[in-house]
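hey so i finally got around to running the thing on that chain from the lab meeting. sorry it took forever, my laptop kept dying and i had to restart like 3 times. anyway pasting the input first so we r on the same page abt which one it is
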Amino acid sequence: MKIDLKGKKAFIAGIGDDQGFGWAIAKALAEAGAEIIVGTWTPILKIFTTSLQAGKFDESRKLSDGSLMQISKIYPLDAAFDTPNQVPTEIKENKRYKDVPGYTISEVAAAVKKDFGEIDFLIHSLANAPEVKKPLLETSREGYLAAMSSSAYSFVSLLAHFGPLMRAGGATLSLTYLASERAVPGYGGGMSSAKAALESDTRTLAWEAGRKWGLRVNTLSAGALSSRAARAIGFIGRMIDYAAKGAPLPEPLDAREVGNAAVFLLSPLASAITGVTLYVDKGMHAMGVGPEILQEGL
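ok and heres what got predicted. didnt touch it at all, straight out
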């Protein structure tokens, strides 16, 4: 069965380059015929738009029919802030923010409504933890709460603001990681806690948004991928190698596999699926022992 999303509009929050899961989801949605709208973290807006216009992403934009994925509009977005009055003065005056209008969640939602009317899909592909390299015991209160705000509550706020302009039968999707339920040393700064919160919120929001707007709410737990954001953690290469040695399917995860799974969850083929965490990690989540045990011939 072919997934046909022609006439559908998707807002994807968190694309900043052509390497991560957000880009892969956008491309898969474009392959299915959906219109792509993007929210990019305000500090990297200029870099992203300049690179896109210069053709640096053209190879990555190629669709199966030879055409290039089109992005209808790119909005600046800092999902740590719901309204303009929450933005601290030092942020407002920062050179990367000063001349950029309307980057809070409420402002972006209002702009999307004005420019596009209604949308069908909302994808949350963003996370940030300023102290991600610190063990949880060494994480400050400020660092922990910043991770929760940017990586978990941001989805709650996005859905609260975009829900009213989404068509009934639409769907939302966020991205989580196995550290929400398993200890992953090195994935610190409160990020594991934020992912656990995100998964819990997915279930609650599935009920609330389903009854309020007729929307489905799911999250996708993806395996390790060497994206720019993941490399910031510092040990992504070892995580990928560990999965290759210990996962049921040993080949490396391809971002396109995550994009395909995302399109399925967003499409009418998944019309009865909501409140779910779907694992797309080559089966790593199913393992109770690691490759060091397996190699000993347990």
